[in-house]
Amino acid sequence: MITMSDSIKELATAMCTVQANLPTVTRDKTNPFFHSKYAGLDTVMPAALKVLTAHGLALVQTVGQDGNGGTTLTTLLMHESGEWLSDTQPLLLSKSDPQGQGSAITYARRYGVMAMLGLVAEEDDDANAASPAAPKQPQKPPSAPRPAPTAPEPARDYDQARPISEGQVRAIRGALGRIFGQGEAKDALGEYLWVKAVQPKACQKSETEIHLGELTMAEASALIAKLNEELSKKE
């Protein structure tokens, strides 16, 4: 939801100058789920603030709640004249804990700033497109693969209805941590979307959280097999 001061004449004039001087930020981070690059918040924010502050503008982002108890992020652009422009967006939490909220806030802050200012991110090819092709180097023999999380024995007929075991839960959580990170560095949204695509039953109970307890042993074994495939791509 976008709101603004009664007049934004001075702000609009300043933004015309700002957007003429905003750089194209580099995609310096990699998403392990989509195997794609994106511009991190620590790249986007300094690039934006450097130009904004030079033209009498400031940017503030705050976390709040909507009328239904959901978490929101508000991006507020202010001009030294007192004029302002604000946009509030809901946060999609993949897990209702501090790590899940922190990941969602970081994700929303990055896109909130880029949308507000019209920033564009481009993939950094390390000047390869403008440089002569280097001679090919002999390829090193592949290193021994790291051990992947071991799955329980293949599912038998009587496993089809048995609930997921504690060993399977540990194997799945450990593999997800290796792929999507842990703590503040965890890509919680990417983790949720990956599991939802591979094993939607684990995400039917909530639109933001993964519930492994909903799976049977057979379904958990299939999920572990997919995780092993994903880990092998990262080696």
**What's the N-to-C terminus distance?**
43 Å
Low-confidence spans? 123-134
Find the structural class using helix and strand composition: alpha+beta
Percent range for β-strand residues: 15-25%
Order of helix and strand elements from N to C terminus: EHEEEHEEEHEHHH
Number of helices: 6
- How many whole angstroms does the radius of gyration measure? 23 Å
Major sheet details: 4 strands, antiparallel
Strand order of the biggest β-sheet: 1-7-6-5
Q: What is the count of β-strands?
A: 8
Descriptive notes:
The protein is an alpha+beta fold. Helices cover 39% and strands 17% of the residues. The protein folds into 2 domains: 122 residues, no CATH class; 87 residues, no CATH class. It has 6 helices and 8 strands; from the N terminus they run βαβββαβββαβααα. It has a 4-stranded antiparallel β-sheet with strand order 1-7-6-5. Helix 2 packs across helix 3 and helix 4 packs parallel to helix 6. It is elongated.
